[in-house]
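ok trying again, last paste got cut off:
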Amino acid sequence: MSKTTKGLRVSNWKNSKVVTVGLLRQLGLLEDDESHKHSQNTIDRKSDNKNKNELEKIKVEYQDLLGENSRLKSEVKKISAEKEVLKSEKVDILEENSRLKLEVNKISDEKKVLELEKVDLLEENSRLESEVKKISGEKKVLKSEKADITQQLENYKTKYHSVDILKVKWDALPSQTRDGVGNIFENCTSVEDIIMSLGNWNNLQMLMEYLVNLYQNNSVGAEELGEVFDIVFAMYSKINPHIVRLETVEGDLFETTKHVRVGKPASKIMKVIFRGVKNNKKDEIIQKSIVIVG
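nice, full thing came through this time. structure:
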């Protein structure tokens, strides 16, 4: 567009404005210049006051916004810090979860192993229970067999123990003592021969007299033959309970009716060498006890 054209348009706009203002005044719709100015000033003052108020309000709002902004920045900073903490805690929790998962898997595996071991142990326990029952049964059988054998042994001891001991004591006799006994019991050269002779009291009495002679003369084999006589007499007294031994003990007073002393005379028995024999039916002392007094 040319400058001439542009100028014409401005001029036309100004002329149009003048005409419009004139018309408005004639119609009473537009005030004159003074009134207009006064009104305009009033409007301007009101506008200024309003603007000032709005400005103050804006300033206050601005300060509030600044405060709010500062608070929000602090809040953002705080939240950011908390966020970082939460991130760190999240990492820790994730690591802990991973560790716990590994631990759970490990424990699960161990549990499976234990369950298998439990099954094995239960089977072993069942086997052992069966074994215990079996052994208990065998134990009862063995106990019963043991009781039978023990009873048989006791019966044997009761019946033959004295014979066994007698044989041991007989074998321990000096040879000259055994020969002396053989002279008393014709053809008596063994324990069996002595036992066979026990039914005859005269034989036992001769053995006792021979033993007493050995004690009185302090001969070799007296003590050994005394042990043989004790056994033989015990066997004889079972059949003839009225023939008993005298109850002579150390500390008893010496009595000539019951005792024969060896050594110097005294009143108190210090040692019993041979316990005498008595017939209770006849209340008769067959053989006095041989003692040492002091």
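cool. The helical segments are 3-26, 33-171, 175-184, 191-196, 201-216, 222-239. The two ends are 181 Å apart (CA to CA).
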